[in-house]
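Ticket #4471: structure export looks truncated?
Reporter: QA, pipeline team
Priority: medium

Steps to reproduce: submit the single chain below to the structure queue and open the exported record.
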Amino acid sequence: MFEGVKEDIQSVFRRDPAARNTFEVLTNYPGLHALWMHRLANKCWRGGFFWLGRTISSVSRWLTGIEIHPGAKIGRRFFIDHGMGVVIGETAVIADDVTLYQGVTLGGTSWNKGKRHPSLGNGVVIGAGAKVLGPFNVGENAKIGSNAVVTKEVPAGATVVGIPGQIVLKAVETKVDVDESKRRKIEESFGFDAYGLSEEMPDPVARSIRSMLDHMHLVDERMNSMCKELRKLDASYQKEDVPSLDDKDLDCFKEAN
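Actual output as written to the record:
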C-alpha cells in the first residue's frame, strides 16, 4: 500500500513542475486524494458493497470536485492535474501512466448496460475540457487536445484535436519550396491566420487552407513560367494580366471567418 502511495507521489513530481515537496503534494493535490479514495471505493464495489462504494465516491466528489465511479478500473501512476470537473464513468478502463487535466469527461453515449465508456492505453494524455465518449479504445501514448470531442477509436501514438476529434500528424517535408513571404502575403490578403499550426498540436482546418493557398501560389508560378517560354517561341504572343481580386470580396471572406 505504502509503495503504491510513494509511486503516486513520484508520478506527480515527474509530471508537474509546480510540485515542490512531498508534504505539499500529500496535502494539496486533489487528484491524488480522489485517486486514493477511488481505490477504496473500487475495493468495496468489487466486494459487493455497492452502496458503500458509491458513498465513498460521492464524498470524494464533494471534497475534490472529481467524480470517479467506483466501478472504473484505473492502473498505476495515474495523474489528474488540477482535477476540477473531471468525470470518469463506470465502465472506463485506464491503463498505466495516464494523465488527465481539468474538465475531462470519460463518458458514454448510450443508456444500455454493459461497456459504454472508453478504455485508455498506457501513457495517454488528455487535455483540459476534452470529452471522450463511447466504448472504444484510445491507443498507447495517444494525445487528445484541449476541448476536443472524441467519439471513435484513436490509434496508438496519434494526436487528436477539434470537434469532432480529428487525427493530425506532425508536419512533413514538402517536395516543393514555397516562398514564406509570398505565402504570408496571400494569407493576409484573405484575412487568414494560421495561428493553430504547430508541430505538436496543429489545426487540421488551418493546415488544409494553407495547403490550398500553397497550391494556388505554385500554379500561378507555373503559369508565369509557361507564359515566358511562349513569348520566347512566339514574339506575337500577348500576355493578358489576371484580373485582380476585389477587396470587397475579400472583406466578405474575412467576415465569414
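Status: closed, not a bug. The export was complete when the record was re-opened. Leaving a note from the reviewer for reference: The two ends are 55 Å apart (CA to CA).
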